[in-house]
Structures are given as C-alpha cells and as structure tokens.
Amino acid sequence: MAPLVFVHGIRLSGAAWTEQLERANSPATAVDLPGHGARRGERFTLAGAVDAVIEAIDEPALVVGHSLGGYVAIAAAARHPDRVAGLLVAGSTCVPGRTLETPFRLAHRLLMRLPDRGERFSRWQFESVLPPRLAQAVLDGGIATEVIPDVAKAFADFDVLAQLAAYPGPTWIVNGSRDHFRRHERRFLDVCADGRLITVPKAGHYLPMVRGQEFSRLVLDAARSLSISTVSSERSESCSGPSEAVAQFPTG
Fold first, then answer.
1. What radius of gyration, in Å, describes the C-alpha atoms of the chain?
2. Which of 72, 126, 185, 225 falls 20 to 30 Å from 173 in CA-CA distance?
3. How far apart are CA 210 and CA 198, in angstroms?
C-alpha cells in the first residue's frame, strides 16, 4: 500500500490528523506547514509549504490535503509529480479569489483585535465541532490565526485549476455535501487527468476530523488502489484515457 502524507488546513497543524495516523495501516506522516504547529512563527509561503510536503516523502506517496492543505497538495503534485503517487483533496474545490480571500482577512482582523487574539473563540469553535480527544490534540498543536494574511498573499495569484491539470496522476476529490468549499468541484474534476469525485452526505467542511472513520476508509481505499494500479501497470503497457467517477459515500 502506498505511504500516506497528510497536509492540514489553515491555522491548524499536523495534530489535526491524529485519528487518521492512528487508523493508517501503511507508513504515514502529517506535516506542519510553515507558520503552523511546530513551525509557528515562520512566514508562510507556497514554496515553503510545498517543500514541507516533499521533504516528508521518502517514496512516492498518496498526499492527502484538507482545505489549505488540499491547495498545497495540488501545488506539490504539479511541481513534483514523481513524488506524488496519488492526490486526495478534501474541502479544497473553491477557486481562490476575492470571494474566498475577503472572509479570511475579515476573520483575521476581528480575531486579532480580541485581547487573547481569538484563542477562547478558537477553543470554543473546535471543542463544539470535533470529537473531544481530537479537539484537544488540535488545540495542543496551536491555532495560528496570525498566519492568515501570509496565506492569503501566497494564494492571491495561484491558478489552482492549471496546477491540478498539470498533475498526471490519479486524483480523488472528496467533499462533504454541506461543505461551502465544494463550490467549483465540477471544474476541478473536469481538469483532472484521472479524477474521481466523492460526496459524503450530511458532512461539512471538517469532514476529515468529524467523520474520521468514514474518511479513513476513503483514504485507505485510495492507497490500496494505487498499489493495485502499480501492479497492473507492470503487467501491461497499455494506456487508458482519463477516467471519472462520481460517487455518494454510504452513511451506514
């Protein structure tokens, strides 16, 4: 089975993937992006974020990204396709632009005006949404609200569709049916060389953390399929065209 590399969302850290690391049955690691987690205080840049992902890969891996991590994973796959055996992105199918940037900048401005820079609000936010043990792990990893302007700047001119189109490997697009970041999912699917769109009913933006068991099944299925594809390609030199699969993930 292909090794797994997990890439977290904005303000969070590799601790967001605690449950996924526990459920993995192949080598797995979760990175801290610049400005987050153990690297809090560093300036976030897209180049630095891509480097963090690639440095975590010992052999071609399934790179799994959520939210900000999904965009970083796409950039890493486009720039280093030989290191990315497959790409799975969740909550990362809204084309960056002012409609995406403005709410983040507004949230940053409001949170940074609070005496504790939004720490109490962030604690309430994650404790109310996530399972208790995971919420504590996320909070222990630190909430880097201060990184938002650097992230917004880094993605101001990021052509995510062109980057995704440049990646020749298999891509899984996973979205909760209630995720506001699924707005352009069909456009993302259309540019994939080999894409699949999976929708998880009644799930929101924090699908990988709130519905950890279901998300883990999707990740491990993707990792297993990469191993099967590798064996098949070694047995045959025939080449198939781009494929598309749209699925509803069962709730039972």
1. 17
2. 126
3. 17
Q: Where are the alpha helices (DSSP H) in the chain?
A: 18-23, 46-55, 68-79, 98-113, 119-129, 132-141, 148-154, 160-166, 185-191, 207-210, 212-235
Instruction: Read off the pLDDT of each residue in 69-96 and give the average, rounded to a whole number.
Output: 97
Residue 118 has pLDDT above 70, yes or no: no
Residues 6+ apart with CB under 8 A from 73: 7, 53, 63, 64, 65, 84, 87, 88, 89, 92
Place 96 in a pLDDT band, splitting at 50, 70 and 90: confident
Q: Whose CA is closest to 73, among 104, 30, 36, 105?
A: 30
Q: Dihedral, CA atoms, 102, 187, 161, 10, nearest 10 degrees?
A: 40
Give the per-residue pLDDT at 229.
Answer: 60
Average pLDDT over residues 88-96: 95
Q: Are 84 and 177 in contact (CB under 8 A)?
A: no
**C-beta of residue 215 within 8 angstroms of C-beta of residue 130:** no
- pLDDT tens for each residue of 187-209: 999 999 999 999 999 999 999 99
Tokens standing for residue 80: 């280093």
Q: In Å, how far from its chain's centre is CA 36?
A: 15
